[in-house]
Amino acid sequence: MKYLEIGEIVNTQGLRGEVRVQVITDFVAQRFQIGAEVTAFPKQGKPVVLQIDGMRRHKQLVILHFSGYDSINDVEFLKPALLKIRMDQQANDELEPGAYYYHQIIGLPVYDLNNRKLGQVKEILDLGPNDVWVVERPDQSDLLLPKIDQVIKQVDLEQSRIVVDLLEGLE
């Protein structure tokens, strides 16, 4: 079964079984809504399917509570753990034109307007008004590309390639 990573449990919160989650999805309200099912993949142990019965935001984190886990002792084994959903759980997402899932972009090769390969996307940073795509280049430092129309000219998922216009100062 394939999974999509949506967050990472980084610590416990309080004594009543809550956990702190570093979010890595743009669908926070949908992914972490009460009643949603997620799978935790702890560093130690087997994956555990959990049902969310409490959610609130705290700074850059989300605080979650899971059904049946009512004390800090119940959730201690989850730190750290990756939180994932099954790929079929994303089927009802409505993406705006030009919007993509992180997993669709990470790993794609990046080319400039002259068809010169620059490298491949290794991660996506959420830094406020727009994402920044980090392109790993061989024998060079990483290239940081803002996800704006002036820079990202084409994302072709079928051909597995991204075409960018390297504006002055980006390289």
From TrEMBL:
GO terms for biological process: ribosomal small subunit biogenesis; rRNA processing. Gene3D superfamilies: PRC-barrel domain, RimM. It holds the Pfam family RimM. It comes from Fructilactobacillus florum 8D. HAMAP family: Ribosome_mat_RimM. The lineage of its organism: Bacteria, Bacillati, Bacillota, Bacilli, Lactobacillales. The gene is rimM. GO terms for molecular function: ribosome binding. Residues 6-88 form the RimM N-terminal domain. Keywords: Chaperone, Cytoplasm, Ribosome biogenesis, rRNA processing. The PRC barrel domain binds ribosomal protein uS19. This is Ribosome maturation factor RimM. NCBIfam families: 16S_RimM (TIGR02273). Belongs to the RimM family. It is found in: Cytoplasm.
